[in-house]
Write a structure and sequence with these properties.
10 helices; elongated
Length: 214
């Protein structure tokens, strides 16, 4: 997995990337406590930039910081996962019904993201492009409140999604098929087919998250 993609990254940025990669690859049903000293020793980065990275991750909702000690990474329960997926269904089904009648350039953008996903070898990149695929549709629907709400789910979705594609290579291929179905329905201007494709995608995603050790 990629640890840093930024040439000349600062120490806080390197600490942030190291911590985020640790968090998003933690099985969703596990919790972890990371002390500042432990992170500094494991990452080779001094404690001050580690502390800055922890503050940033706390603001983004990844961790609960314990002042002068470190960070607690809570588990995501089955009920957490189901609540997130229910929220996604409301936002995404509404969004495709708004976009499909007049899709404009949205299908072209979705196909670009599909091409990127197909060539992704890093699970972090794959899920980042996955989230951008869905965000492109939601953004095009034109409701900033919906878009902001969906963005607030991003961190938890990253953690859930990365574990799936790391544990099951076939799921990665299935996601691409499901995403193509959504893109094709939008390109055809068919809201009903788009809603059905979104629903099937989210249903299979939820089922994959219920597998042991995911």
């Amino acid at each position: 997995m990629t640890t840093s993609k930024t040439t000349g990254a600062t120490a806080p940025e390197l600490a942030y990337e190291w911590l985020k990669n640790t968090i998003v690859t933690l099985p969703r049903d596990e919790e972890m406590f990371l002390s500042e000293a432990q992170v500094a020793a494991s990452s080779g980065i001094s404690r001050t930039p580690v502390r800055e990275a922890l503050l940033r991750l706390e603001a983004e909702g990844f961790i609960r910081r314990v002042p002068h000690k470190g960070a607690f990474i809570p588990a995501l329960s089955d009920s957490d996962v189901e609540a997130i997926m229910q929220a996604r269904r409301v936002v995404e089904e509404w969004s495709v019904t708004e976009v499909a009648p007049q899709p404009g350039l949205v299908p072209d953008r979705l196909r670009v993201l599909l091409d990127l996903q197909e060539n992704d070898t890093d699970p972090v990149d794959f899920i980042a492009h996955d989230l951008e695929f869905h965000t492109a549709i939601i953004r095009a629907a034109g409701n900033p409140l919906m878009n902001n709400f969906y963005s607030s789910l991003r961190d938890r979705q990253m953690r859930m999604g990365i574990r799936i594609v790391m544990a099951d290579e076939t799921r990665k291929k299935q996601v691409l098929v499901e995403h193509r179905a959504i893109a094709d329905a939008i390109a055809a201007g068919d809201p009903h087919a788009a809603v059905q494709a979104v629903r099937e995608h989210l249903d299979t995603t939820l089922q994959s998250m219920k597998r042991p050790n995911i």
